[in-house]
Structure formats: structure tokens, C-alpha cells
Amino acid sequence: MNNLSESDKEQVTKIVERFLRRLGDGVGVGYLMLHFKEHKEKHGEAHMTHCRARLSTDKAHLAGIGEGWTPALAARVALDVIERKFLVMKENMQKYPYAEEMLSKIAAEI
Length: 110
Known about the structure:
Elements: H1 6-23, E1 30-43, E2 46-57, E3 61-68, H2 71-95, H3 99-109
Antiparallel strand pairs: 1-2, 2-3
């Protein structure tokens, strides 16, 4: 969506910065991609906005989808989905600390 206003870009940037701060160093090194698409559906003058977010790092590959009446709201919903997935993944790694090592051994034997 190339027609994002400057205020929308600033709001989305703030949301992304807040998201990355919350995850901290546990996320690893990589990139975060946000893809926006405007639907035909309207509420007044605002179109429904679809956001597809993908976080790809050396530790995780996660995706989230969100919709809202503004790009900032759609991005926040998509990033919240990624954050929940990341927290579940982190909890599972603490619960089963040798899971990654076991999967590597099984894959090597096949």
C-alpha cells in the first residue's frame, strides 16, 4: 500500500519499535516485514486494512495477520499474534530444553 500518509507511517513505526523493545534480545538477529493491503470494505471514508507480518530471525520464523480500520491498528493486531506465538515458543523451549538437540539427532539419523 504505497499511499500511506506520513502520520500512518509514523504510527506504524512506533508500534514496531515498541514491539521489538518488548521482545528484547531473545528474538535474535533477523528482519521484520509488514505487508499492507486495503480492502474495498469501507467504514465512512476509512477502508479496512489487512496487515501480514513476518518475523524471521536466527532463532524463530513467525507470522501474524491482522485487520483494522487503520494501518496502525492492523499492524498492532498482526504483531500481537507474533508476540503470543513467540512467548509460547519460548515457554516450550524452557519446558523442554533438550527438544531442539533431540530433533537434530533424529534428523541426522534419517
